[in-house]
Design brief:
heterodimer; A: about 325 residues; B: about 350 residues; alpha/beta; six-stranded mixed sheet; about 25% strand
Amino acid sequence: MKLPAIKDFKLNAVLFKDLRQKTKRSQLSVSVFLLNLFLSLIAIIILLSVSFSAASYSPLDNTVFTVFFIVLGFMEFGFILLTVPAVTSGAITMEREKQTFDVLLTTSLTTRQIIWGKYWASLAQVILLIISGFPVFALVFMYGGVTFFQAFGVLLTLLLLTMYISAIGLFFSAKMKKTIVATVLTYVILLVLMFGTISMLLTAGGIIEVINSIVLDNTGVDPDLKIDFLGFILYVNPLCTIYDCMAGLFNFDSFIFGSDATMAGILSDVTHFSSNNILLTLWTPISIVVQMLIAWGALERASVVIDPLRKKADKYARKRKRNKQAA
Amino acid sequence: MLHIENLSKYYGTFRALNNVNLHINKGELFGFVGSNGAGKTTTMKICVGLLRADSGRIVIDGYEVRKNTKLLKQKVGYVPDFFGAYDNLTSIEYLNFFANAYGIYGKEADKLSEDLLALVNLSDKRNHEVDGLSRGMKQRLCLARALVHNPDLLVLDEPASGLDPKARYELKEILKSLSSMGKTIVISSHILPELAEMCSSFGIIDRGVMKMTGTLRDIQQAANFSSMPIVIVVRGDSEPAVQALRELPATKYVRPMAEGRIEVDYLGGIDDEVELLKILVNKGIPVVSYGRMEGTLENVFLQLMNGGQPQNGPAPGPVQAAPPMQAPMQAAPQPAPMQPAPMHAPMQAAPQAPAGQEVAR
């Protein structure tokens, strides 16, 4: 029986076209090579240093490989942060710049199909890069220290974070006219999401501390104000999500912090919530759900933004009316 | 097929379209003429759903554009004035992609793409990357792309711009064959002689106002081409005819030419023209031929662009007149400064005639 060719499947046309274009470009294979070269070098350095130290001092300690896996995980996250905005923020703007977008809009494809096609095509490229790094990650299985469940948990989280960051990049690509502007804005927003939210909480915490001390000095009563619900703003922070995922899966507190180092542990110190509060203990899944909702909203908004027939606020309408009356 | 009613569009406070009205029947090849920034592209973009009009409505094949966007996309094919090509895609892949975009997949898409490549004479370029094709080839490929879903209406925004004469000729032939297939085609171009040769009807737009629409003859009549010279050919000596013409009150200039040919700038209507001929015949002048010189599309366009107003509405034809054409006639419009050279540059126009014979009344 003859199997149907891939072109016979009714794939999203934009997705199929973009995949075809991307796979023909040399950039994809070059980036796969460079990423794996980089990860492999790190892996080799760690493994060699472990081997040398084991030979001269003590037998191999599995914890070393856990740390090795965590380091690689964070490096992969850093790689996602660097590459995903560059890949996705040009998805629509490049079409505009190459003057192919108008023609695309006149086809039967809906704006939603165009956006989702672009989204999955960009995502496919990044996912390919992430998956290509699996063999390096798998090196730890040779020595132990990391279970399959832990490795799968980290990679799944990375994948979901990639979807979140991709959606932000695509939103700015739809919103802006120039690729460079969309790329810069995506990076800026990611920085704000990661470090802006933390800085905001630190600032709010500082202000609350000052208020507490002033009230205490003046009234002798400790108001015990804390950031409380403000802390949940970190749900949008991808850095906190990957951190909590790693901390939860590998029990950071057992060998790094010496206390509960998960987001639940940290936030229970600065809020009135207990570390057993379900909103804190399920930090990673809840934050991922929040981020997926934001991603979905960003993509839906992007499909509205690129619709040429959408009704826009006409700030000149009143001026025109005035001119008409004057005339 | 295409009906535009009171279409207006603003860019900020700038009015790009001002109550544009137009009606194009099925199977017409409609030439859309206007200077840069006149509103052609804006009108076309609104027609294909790439811009939102501020007021007015567009009906394509009985369906209003704003309310039936999805259906409209199936009925209209669009070739923009500037278009790019996807890199890393061959011609066949390019057409296949657009076939997929219109819901045509697999072997059906393959066959369609091959047929379209053959239609635009690009079968030999099927495996060439689109980016590497010449501008003319890209233009033809873009036309094939616009035909992928077999639209009833084709909107082509300056498809001939930047093409060499051979590519322009090829494009023209393809458009003619498409027109003969029953497609309604709206085409804008600055190459007016070619447009005049190719199109069955025309619309002239200026600063967002549709100045006139109709067949070339309608437009010539409407654009006061009674101000075009009357050409009279007499047998033998033309001097008596020249004298007789100079005596008539409606005569502005008389230019005797070689071989009994006389060009007369005669400010009169059709009745006056008949009277003029009667006078000449009654005086025993042997008139061999008699008639007004025909105004070209370019003349009409230039006349309108230089502030001339249409005198008459166009004769009833397949293309209905836009409101500005129905404006009251001017009694005696001034000849447009860009009228054919002989009217204003006698030394150049009548090389065989003595300069002294140019008589101004």
